[in-house]
Design goal:
Low-confidence stretches: 351-368
Structural class: alpha+beta
Mean pLDDT: 89
Largest sheet: 6 strands, antiparallel
Number of helices: 10
Radius of gyration: 27 Å
Number of strands: 11
Length: 368
């Protein structure tokens, strides 16, 4: 890609639009501004009212003076494609355009994409100067839609990591992005019927794995602490004093609380899905009840820590340990229930979703 580039495309509602890209993208901004294009809140430039093909000729001439190349996209404006798709997905979705004019902006995006498929690879190896996000305003799921590199019509869609799971790069539980056709109706069905269910299953598996890892970390530290107490010596064989034992105990409890925050964060959602009566282990209901009560107590403690008066660490640890101990005892029961609990599926896209969007898309494409 040139140091500075202007990409033109056709928007159904806005007419001709332009996007600046390249390491020297401010040159492109200057050319667009001098030609009369106006930038909106999403950093997309629009041909001014009354603009004509002559304006485009002027833009090409002006761009040359600013060492900027001008290219016409063979696709319709990605903002239109995203809004059409969002309008057909089940639930309440919003769409917005994202501009990655400088290559470094795209690189900053990579760690946050939760993907084990083509989209993740494309973001690392292909230049993608713009994209669109689709956000489920109820569930909080955010998808990234990009034009599929090396293809004339297809798109790729994948997901950002949920906020509670932090970054998504390299996560083995990440879902695989999928290829979408350029027509809104079939694309929406593909997302609703294939991608969103696989995404929710991946979130479920990732939450379960996070809880399992947190409990294993606490158990490991507990075993180390118990070994120190039993031997009355530090790991270097130095005799353990009473003060040293107290310090070691508080350190262990501090670490346990921090690790247990993962359980507090993820367990409630998964526990809502557990149905022991319909599982191979119906007798797990009693243990799940204890685990639920323990999480409720820990949530109350966390609320006091965050919003209440300053709480001494010893008091916090004293209140937290019964809940932690309950999970150390019965946590495996929860994990096996979680493994057989299917995530709640979203509503299936209605059959009445327009199929004849093929014609609309063809018409829009010809308008380029």
């Amino acid at each position: 890609m040139a140091e500075a580039q202007i990409i033109l495309s056709r928007s159904r509602d806005s007419g001709l639009v332009a996007i600046a890209a390249g390491e020297r993208y401010p040159w492109a901004h200057t050319a667009l501004a001098e030609t009369g294009f106006r930038r909106d809140d999403e950093s997309v430039y629009h041909l001014p009212a009354g603009g004509s093909e002559a304006t485009v000729v002027d833009l090409v001439t002006c761009a040359k003076r600013h060492r900027t190349s001008v290219h016409a996209s063979s696709r319709r404006f990605i903002g239109d494609a995203a809004r059409d798709l969002a309008g057909l997905l089940p639930g309440q979705w919003s769409a917005s355009v994202k501009i990655y004019s400088h290559p470094a902006w795209q690189e900053d995006l990579v760690p946050w994409i939760w993907d084990s498929g083509e989209l993740g690879r494309a973001l690392q190896s292909e230049r993608i100067p713009y994209a669109a996000t689709l956000t489920d305003t109820v569930h909080g799921t955010t998808l990234l839609l990009v034009e599929r590199p090396g293809h004339q019509l297809d798109y790729l869609v994948g997901a950002f990591a949920p906020e509670s799971l932090e970054t998504g790069y390299g996560d083995p539980h990440a879902p695989r992005s999928i290829v979408l056709p350029p027509f809104a109706g079939p694309a929406a069905r593909t997302v609703a019927d294939r991608y969103l269910p696989s995404y929710e299953q991946a979130v479920h598996a990732r939450r379960s794995a996070a809880i399992a890892a947190a409990l294993e970390s606490i158990r490991s530290e507990r075993d180390t602490w118990q070994a120190v107490v039993a031997s009355a010596r530090y790991s270097d064989a130095t005799p353990l004093t009473a003060a040293g034992l107290g310090a070691a105990t508080e350190e262990f409890l501090d670490h346990s609380w921090r690790s247990f925050l993962t359980v507090i964060n993820h367990a409630p959602t998964l526990m809502d899905r557990c149905r022991p009566a319909s599982s191979p282990w119906p007798d797990d209901a009693e243990a799940l009840s204890r685990l639920t009560g323990a999480v409720t107590d820990a949530e109350s403690l966390l609320d006091d820590v965050v919003h209440g008066s300053p709480l001494p660490s010893q008091e916090r640890n004293s209140r937290a340990w019964p809940a932690i101990e309950t999970w150390l005892t019965d946590g495996e029961i929860f994990l096996r229930q979680a493994r057989v609990s299917a995530p709640h599926r979203r509503p299936v896209l209605p059959v009445s979703a327009p199929v004849n969007s093929h014609a609309t898309a063809r018409s829009t494409h010809r308008g380029h």
